Amino acid sequence: MSKYDGLFSQPLKVINIGTSKFKEDLDLQRVESVQVDWQPPAGGNIKLIEALDFLVDNEKVEEANLEAIKRIKDAHPHLVDIDLAGNVIPGMHPKKILHAGPPVEWRNMCGPMQGAVIGALLFEGLATNEDEARKLAESGEIDFSPCNEHSTVGPMAGIVSASMPVHIIENRVHGNRAYCTVNEGLGKVLRFGAFSEEVIDRLKWIKDSFAPALKKALVKTNGIDLKSIISQALHMGDECHNRNKAATSLFYREIVGYFLETDLNKEELNEVLSFIKKNEHYFLNLSMPACKSALDAGHGVPYSTVVTTMARNGVEFGIRISGLGEKEWFTAPAEFVKGLLFPGFSDEDAARDLGDSAITETMGIGGFAMGGAPAIVQFVGGEVEDAIQYSEQMYDITVGENSNNSIPTLNFRGGAFGIDVRKVIDTGILPVINTGVAHKVAGVGQIGAGIVHPPKPCFDKGLLALYEAYKEEK
């Protein structure tokens, strides 16, 4: 008797792989079947497959990635000081302006970024009105450069000029520092491109009153442990990108006693403490440079395919990779954010994805930790199940799990971190980012929030560059 006897008389058990059209036909015939979604690796792109063949299961790559994520995980950022950007940021000078995202020229900047540049020039006294500021920006006299190339990060437009105070974050394990401006709060603010008198006055108050007061308080500390605050906040419902209520509260509790030890009078104390207390996003401008200091420590590991920067300038999205150059960006047009818009606004009003705040997702928090911050869905849209699914999916494209940033709703599993270019291309899964939506016109401000993904060509280009850089060394 043949082993095939009776095979074709048995009920069919069908597994359909790939296009669902065949399953639809089977459903019509009432044949039970299971659909398995499948696509060829790298979308069938021969060049990308060749690069994957070289980089996947490559011992040097595996060792390099473990080293990169070890450095990132071991980093221990502390807030140690606040000072003017021109005094502390490497390469800063009076006519240098830093911006969010990959490199972009003035003429190509989006509306909110141009507005923020105008505001910075007014704040610095380099121009007295909008027309003068525009002419100066167009003249070529201003040296524009990405924040990320100067150990700095900035939310939304991300504009930093020489006289702006910046938080100084020190990674005490590796010795590097990172910088970020002070969060202005909500409403008409520079980061969304506003440059009215009230915006400039607030920036001057931050420079002349708030920053000196915070400096006096920080002198009395041994540094504020931001790594610890982030870990705690993740257990309290924050994801430290779009939700910072717990983290700001923890920071406030930590710093308030030191303020009380200073020589500030009652009125000054009330003013500076109220500024922090009333701004639930104050900690965003601490979580971002904390992540930056850790990721910079993981940059520059030869052969590593770990992404160390994701940033957007409202025109292009850019990534940088540990195993490649410090200024080597891989870019593609930025996407539009999909989510919830405030009443009165439509998709036509929105600017493209903008800001350096995706440094949080690059670190493995923010959108990667949404599963532990269920309240965030009320702000960005979707359901709690969606948030958990996003967090779970990120394990498929990362090198490891960060036990420092565990997620309670995932049974305290360490958060996914170490975005691996190889896995992004192999799986077709893109990193998830939750973010605010800026109006495309300078100064209107935030008009909503939602979910966005990087454009895939960034990762395609990065993978091919890694292959070209190392293929001869195998």
Instruction: Tell me the number of helical segments per DSSP (H or I, 4 or more residues long).
Output: 16
Measured between the Cα atoms of the first and last residue, the distance is 53 Å
Structural class: alpha+beta
- What radius of gyration results from the CA coordinates? 24 Å
CATH architecture annotation of the largest domain? Alpha-Beta Complex
What's the count of strands? 17
| Tally of individual domains | 3
Give the percentage of residues in beta strands: 15-25%
By CATH, the superfamily of the largest domain comes out as Enterococcus faecalis V583 domain
3D structure, described in words:
There is one protein chain. This protein has 474 residues and is α+β, with helices and mostly antiparallel strands. The protein has three domains: 7-38, no CATH class; 43-72 and 297-473, v583 domain like (v583 fold); 76-289, Enterococcus faecalis V583 domain (Enterococcus faecalis V583 fold, Alpha-Beta Complex), CATH 3.90.1710. It contains 16 helices and 17 strands. The chain has helices at residues 21-28, 46-55, 59-74, 85-88, 111-124, 130-139, 197-219, 226-234, 245-260, 266-277, 284-297, 359-363, 377-380, 384-393, 421-427, 456-470, and strands at 14-17, 33-36, 77-84, 96-99, 143-146, 165-171, 177-181, 224-225, 307-313, 316-321, 330-333, 338-341, 354-355, 398-407, 413-419, 433-438, 446-452. Strands 7-6-3-8 form a four-stranded antiparallel beta sheet. Helix 5 crosses helix 7 (197-219). The radius of gyration is 24 Å and the shape is globular. The model has no long low-confidence stretch (mean pLDDT 94).
